[in-house]
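Lab notebook, design round three. We kept the backbone fixed and only want residue identities now. Task for the bench partner: fill in a sequence for the structure below.
Input structure tokens:
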């Protein structure tokens, strides 16, 4: 079965992961986020428990 031969596919997978890790990923991480998170404190909302009719 030729699909079980890892020779060409392993090299293609390794080459694609190296391309992603060394070239594409640093370029993506260098981009500035268009919507940076704010330093505003999060507010917690008061929730009321649900009264189930069968309990």
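Proposed sequence:
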């Amino acid at each position: 079965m030729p699909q079980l031969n890892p020779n060409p596919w392993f090299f293609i997978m390794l080459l694609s992961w190296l391309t992603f890790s060394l070239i594409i990923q640093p370029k993506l991480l260098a981009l500035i986020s268009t919507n940076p998170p704010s330093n505003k404190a999060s507010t917690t909302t008061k929730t009321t428990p649900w009264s189930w009719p069968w309990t």
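Keep this in mind before ordering anything: The CA atoms of residues 9 and 18 lie 14 Å apart.
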